[in-house]
């Protein structure tokens, strides 16, 4: 699925000129496809990432007001459920995302993910009880579980190879913007009674735009080709890469189709069969991403900044700016340095800055120094995360998965992501109370170092490589 573009670019450069083609056409075909054709489709797809970030942050500021209005103020379990129910719904959605994407296509999958988000946000906005709020959050979570894996697939499939990394970074940037938007919209919640309902209503607007815009966006040419809809695949390729590149891309799709003789993908094949290695790499990357402590940092950021006498609103803005800055830098570097370099540098930086926070939490460090180390270490940790560990896994995995298993393999890996995310959010405060911040941050730093070793030994660079080259490197040959 990323293949039609990536391998097409490689084939453009190595195929000999056709005897019945004009020199000018061959000259254009041997160049990189123009990026302007695919950009609008990529931008629409990243709306789901914006919604992902928005819904993760939408209850941050309003949670206290929600609890007060719905009658569960002071009930920490109920407040925790408002957050974790969304994560549980996301796990449910992610389990079905691969099947939905393969059965109905990418564009329809986006629309199906938007539907529960619109419904769930509306239910939360009008809820009078905690049950209504939790039901709404569960439905929103289902949509969030379906959408992001499909976004990774779609962006990879419709992007020209020479800007695929840059376009992949749009996903992380959109999530950052969604999170910052949610935090900014939530600021008046303490001054305006019932403002939290407005926060939920606002999220229905981009979800509706996504559902409607997908009516005119290009469907995945490779998905269409595998469905036997050859003429439609060719038409979509013309929209995405331009007329001069269609012939070569279609030839490449034909080659890929022949290699995918068996379209049935069983779970056992992903976990124990010939594809188990790439699925293991993908699942472990997402696991280490969550075990690095990034979500714990977000959960604990207000407390750290409060100890340094920084207001919570300002703290959230600082975190958001750091996250967005790192994502923009990653966008610039993704197709220049490559995925593996960014992952290695990111996890190494995260280990260093998490270690600084562990030192700051030590009782032997003076209070004034601890505040500076905690705040500085936290901001730099988020920056390091956004440089690689945040955006790269969602881009890298569709590249290393063969086209036949890509959607379902992404579903498996995202399920691992949501399970660990759920338990980190559920257990973090208890672990913090029992272990203390010094030991807990040290554990997070250790996971970051483990990630550096894992990436060094198992992750290959995909920048500029064709699907065939990646499969030869990662899959045992029959």
TrEMBL record:
Task: Map out region (Disordered) in residue numbers.
Answer: 1-32
Q: Where in the cell is it found?
A: Cell membrane
Any single GO molecular-function term of the entry would be: hexose transmembrane transporter activity
Q: How does it sit in the membrane?
A: Multi-pass membrane protein
Give the transmembrane region(s): 39-57, 77-97, 133-155, 167-189, 195-217, 278-302, 314-334, 341-360, 372-397, 409-432, 438-455
Any Pfam family matching the protein: Sugar_tr
Q: In the record, which residues are listed under signal peptide? A: none
Q: Tell me which PROSITE patterns the record gives.
A: MFS, SUGAR_TRANSPORT_1, SUGAR_TRANSPORT_2
Q: What is its main location?
A: membrane
Q: Which UniProt keywords apply?
A: Cell membrane, Membrane, Sugar transport, Transmembrane, Transmembrane helix, Transport
Asked whether the keyword Transport is assigned, the reply is: yes
List residues of the Major facilitator superfamily (MFS) profile domain.
Answer: 41-463
Q: Which GO terms describe its cellular component?
A: plasma membrane
InterPro entries found in the cross-reference section: GLUT, MFS_dom, MFS_sugar_transport-like, MFS_trans_sf, Sugar/inositol_transpt, Sugar_transporter_CS
Tell me the superkingdom of the source: Eukaryota
Q: Does the keyword Coiled coil apply?
A: no
Family designation = Belongs to the major facilitator superfamily. Sugar transporter (TC 2.A.1.1) family.
Q: What is this protein called?
A: Probable plastidic glucose transporter 2 isoform X2
């Amino acid at each position: 699925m990323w293949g039609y573009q990536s391998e097409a670019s490689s084939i453009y450069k190595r195929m000999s000129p056709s005897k019945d083609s004009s020199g000018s056409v061959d000259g254009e075909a041997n160049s990189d496809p123009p990026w302007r054709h695919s950009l609008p489709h990529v931008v629409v797809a990243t709306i789901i990432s914006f919604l992902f970030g928005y819904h993760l942050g939408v209850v941050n500021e309003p949670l206290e007001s929600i609890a007060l209005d719905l009658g569960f103020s002071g009930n920490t379990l109920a407040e925790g459920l408002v957050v974790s129910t969304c994560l549980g719904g996301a796990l449910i959605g992610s389990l079905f995302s691969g099947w939905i994407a393969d059965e109905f296509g990418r564009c329809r999958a986006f629309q199906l993910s938007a539907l529960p988000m619109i419904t769930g946000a509306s239910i939360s906005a009008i809820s009078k009880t905690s049950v209504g709020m939790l039901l709404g959050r569960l439905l929103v979570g289902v949509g969030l579980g379906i959408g992001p894996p499909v976004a990774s697939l779609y962006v990879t499939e419709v992007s020209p190879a020479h800007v695929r990394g840059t376009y992949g970074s749009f996903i992380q940037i959109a999530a950052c913007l969604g999170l910052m938007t949610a935090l900014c919209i939530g600021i008046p919640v303490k001054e305006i009674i019932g403002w939290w309902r407005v926060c939920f209503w606002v999220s229905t607007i981009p979800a509706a735009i996504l559902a409607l815009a997908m009516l005119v966006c290009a469907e995945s040419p490779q998905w269409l080709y595998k469905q036997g809809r050859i003429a439609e695949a060719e038409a979509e390729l013309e929209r995405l890469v331009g007329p001069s590149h269609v012939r070569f891309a279609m030839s490449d799709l034909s080659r890929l189709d022949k290699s995918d003789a068996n379209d049935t993908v069983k779970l056992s094949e992903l976990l124990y069969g010939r594809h188990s290695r790439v699925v293991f790499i993908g699942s472990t990357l997402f696991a280490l991403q969550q075990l690095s402590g990034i979500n714990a940092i977000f959960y604990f950021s207000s407390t750290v900044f409060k100890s340094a006498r920084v207001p919570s609103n300002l703290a959230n803005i600082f975190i958001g700016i750091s996250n967005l800055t790192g994502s923009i830098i990653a966008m610039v570097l993704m197709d220049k340095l490559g995925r593996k370099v960014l992952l290695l540098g990111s996890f190494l930086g995260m280990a260093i800055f998490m270690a600084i926070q562990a030192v700051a939490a030590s009782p032997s460090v003076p209070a004034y120094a601890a505040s500076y180390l905690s705040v500085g270490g936290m901001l730099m940790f988020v920056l390091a995360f956004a440089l690689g560990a945040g955006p790269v896994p969602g881009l890298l995995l569709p590249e290393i998965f063969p086209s036949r298993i890509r959607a379902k393999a992404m579903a498996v890996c995202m399920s691992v992501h949501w399970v660990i995310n759920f338990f980190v959010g559920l257990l973090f405060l208890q672990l913090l109370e029992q272990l203390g911040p010094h030991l807990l941050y040290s554990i997070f730093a250790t996971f970051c170092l483990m990630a550096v070793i894992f990436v060094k030994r198992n992750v290959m660079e995909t920048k500029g490589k064709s699907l065939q080259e990646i499969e030869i490197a990662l899959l045992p040959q029959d």
